[in-house]
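pinned: reference chain
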Amino acid sequence: MPAGDALRAAGTANQTRISGAPVQGPVFDFAPLINQYLQTHLFGDIFERDNLDWQSRELATVGALAATPGVEAQLRSHMAASMRVGLTAEQLRQVSQLLAERGDAGAGRRANEALTQALSVTGEKK
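pinned: its structure tokens
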């Protein structure tokens, strides 16, 4: 397992792959330490572990975000990230359907809407 600068470098590479591009934006300009923490701890330390593959991590994240009203932008982002790590639109559509049928109808609706929006941006088949 990498440590120190190597851990942050691994985390930065992981973050870029999952995000589809280097991460930047107003929150990181305002508080650059947030991104350093994300790169080192989340995308470095946690994503370098072998206890869950990236697809499983994204499915868990999508489910949690779908169940949380008010975080639709993050849910949309994680739908796109899910496809970047190998999940298909059909698999994510099934997650939306399962959430609606066996979980919470609102969560299923939010997941479906986020997937539709993510697909419209990426240009992938709906």
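why pinned: The CA atoms of residues 54 and 85 lie 6 Å apart. The two ends are 38 Å apart (CA to CA).
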